[in-house]
Amino acid sequence: MGRIKVCGFNVNSVRARLPLLEAWLEHRGNDLDILCMQELKAEEDQFPFDFFKRFGFTCYINAQKRYNGVGTCTKPLPEEVLTQFGHPLLDAEKRLLYTRYPFFHLINLYAPHGDVRGTEKFEFKLRWYDALREWIAARFDLERDKVVLVGDFNITFDDADVFDPVLLADTIGTMPEEREKLKALLDLGFVDAWRRLRPGEVQYTWWDYKGARIWKNEGMRIDFVLVSRALLPHLEAVEVDMWARRKNKIKPSDHAPVIATFRFDD
């Protein structure tokens, strides 16, 4: 089987990002095996299936008009695909897509952004994370099952994930209640691939379009690849591809792709 490269990328509108995606995939030599995209902002009849087919991908999407939406474009064909999860919170919006392969289970997610404390959106975000944890706990044993959870989590783990902990203290993505939900996934048996392989390295995955934040590196790390402990022996590398974010002539997403490489013996 060899190496499998899995990428999580919040594209912030797949149709608007086609010029970037084309240039980026060509730049990388089309070396990705599975591309998990978030925030598609397109319905199924608007999704550019033929574009990705040119690069050898078969795409499965969980689409929503104008908002949200996730898509998993993959070269190895999955054995199972889920877009419904049997929970009203998880199925209320199009934020999850599950695919099963012989080598691992893959969950592509776009977590709610939330809002300031005390709002309905804030409470929905916390309850959504609770529902996600319950679904994963009921389906998998992360000490035994090889599971990848990838996407835009809209929460930072701690102050090392923000460029200015004082300025951003207790704002969306840094509130203690949010971070507790993210850390609850680690307690379930996931490991943050970046922190495991590149401890101490400061790296962000999202930068506001305003104020030339990307060039000042004033960002946040909110896009992750989480790996079950059973899959850890196969985790070989992880990177944040800054090429896709540092574009001037092609409009970039406000996120950078996060790519993990797994190694499986033949």
Tell me what the structure shows.
- With 266 residues, the protein is of the alpha+beta class.
- It has one domain: Deoxyribonuclease I, Chain A (4-Layer Sandwich).
- The protein is built from 7 helices and 12 strands.
- It has a 6-stranded mixed beta sheet. A 6-stranded mixed beta sheet has the order 5-6-7-8-10-9.
- The mean pLDDT is 97.
Helix and strand arrangement:
Elements: E1 2-10, H1 18-27, E2 34-38, H2 49-53, E3 58-62, E4 70-74, E5 80-82, H3 88-92, E6 96-100, E7 105-110, H4 120-139, E8 147-152, H5 176-188, E9 190-192, H6 193-197, H7 213-216, E10 223-228, E11 235-240, E12 258-264
Parallel strand pairs: 1-2, 7-8
Antiparallel strand pairs: 1-12, 2-4, 3-4, 5-6, 6-7, 8-10, 9-10, 11-12
Helix pairs in contact: 4-5
Number of distinct helices: 7
In CATH, the topology is named Deoxyribonuclease I, Chain A
CATH architecture group name: 4-Layer Sandwich
- The CATH H-level homologous superfamily: Endonuclease/exonuclease/phosphatase
Q: What is the CATH first-level class name?
A: Alpha Beta
* Estimated structural class: alpha+beta
Which descriptors apply to this entry?
7 helices, six-stranded mixed beta sheet, Deoxyribonuclease I, Chain A, 266 residues, 12 strands, alpha+beta
What's this, in brief?
With 266 residues, this protein is α+β, with helices and mostly antiparallel strands.
